């Protein structure tokens, strides 16, 4: 009996200690990010759904994991198992003679590898987290966290996509789901300012 009680207690402790072990980014950005590992093989396991060109010579490619894609498709909440992931690759565009090189469709041509990737992962955090999303920026060459990134800035910007579960490109992903064509667009604004494609259709 004592044994059973002990086992039950151990089980309880295990269950209750798991969510508390992963702090929310608001509580402890560093520890939350440490819980988010580099998403190895994302190019083969996740789906490329959009490519964005910006006039400051940045090309960004957006990937979604299958469980996150299914959640959007079925209009369900993203799972908190850690399987709902978004990755955005940040590439510099190729240039020559101070002009960006363009392909036949007049799109900028990204360099071979992105310098950094940004990752969002929904997981079982303690309550009060930014809807349970964790974030991290990684150096692609080393697969290690990009220490120059200030993770609280991710939130101060992504919070304006709260209506879209903090995912700016949801309208674009929905178009991808309808057409199965990778969505490619030129955003006329620099950095990561919003353009029309980020907004839900009225
Ligand atoms: C100034 C605003 C801004 C900041 C700061 C920012 N983002 Fe974003 N993020 C965007 C926009 C806008 C998009 C949509 C793609 C685009 O237009 O480049 C995006 C896209 C993403 C995506 C793809 C899913 C989505 O929301 O569309 C991920 C993942 C992401 N950002 C993670 C991060 C992380 C991690 C950080 C911090 C290291 C960060 N972002 C900082 C504005 C921002």
What does this protein structure show overall?
This protein is an alpha+beta fold. The protein has a single domain (22-194), classed as Chalcone isomerase. The chain is 28% helix and 26% strand. It contains six helices and nine strands; from the N terminus they run αααββαββββββααβ. The chain has a seven-stranded mixed beta sheet with strand order 8-7-6-3-2-1-9. Strands 4-5 form a two-stranded antiparallel ribbon. A hairpin with a 2-residue loop joins strand 4 and strand 5. The chain is globular. 28% of the residues are buried. Residues 4-20 have low confidence and may be disordered. Heme C (HEC) is lined by residues 52, 60, 62, 86-88, 118-120, 135-137, 149, 151, 153-154, 157-158, 167-169, 187, 192, 194, 198.
- Indicate the CATH architecture: 3-Layer(bba) Sandwich
* CATH homologous group name: Cytochrome P460
* Cα Rg: 19 Å
What is the beta-strand fraction?
25-35%
CATH class reads: Alpha Beta
Order of helices and strands: HHHEEHEEEEEEHHE
List keywords for this structure.
seven-stranded mixed sheet; Chalcone isomerase; alpha+beta; binds heme C; single chain; two-stranded antiparallel ribbon; 202 residues; 28% helix; 26% strand
């Amino acid at each position: 009996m004592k044994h059973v009680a002990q086992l039950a207690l151990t089980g309880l402790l295990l269950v209750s200690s798991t969510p508390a072990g992963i702090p929310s980014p608001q509580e402890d950005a560093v520890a939350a990010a440490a819980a988010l590992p580099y998403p190895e093989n994302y190019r083969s396991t996740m789906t490329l759904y959009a490519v964005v060109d910006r006039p400051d010579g940045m090309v960004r490619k957006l990937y979604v994991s299958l469980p996150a894609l299914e959640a959007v498709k079925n209009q369900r909440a993203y799972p908190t198992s850690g399987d709902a992931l978004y990755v955005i690759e940040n590439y510099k565009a190729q240039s020559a003679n101070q002009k960006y090189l363009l392909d036949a469709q007049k799109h900028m041509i990204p360099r071979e590898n992105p310098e950094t990737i940004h990752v969002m992962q929904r997981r079982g955090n303690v309550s009060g987290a930014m809807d349970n999303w964790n974030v991290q920026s990684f150096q692609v060459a080393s697969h290690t966290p990009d220490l120059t990134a200030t993770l609280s800035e991710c939130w101060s910007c992504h919070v304006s996509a709260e209506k879209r579960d903090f995912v700016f490109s949801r309208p674009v992903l929905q178009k991808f789901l309808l057409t199965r064509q990778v969505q490619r667009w030129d955003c006329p604004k620099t950095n990561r300012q919003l353009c029309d494609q980020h907004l839900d259709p009225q």
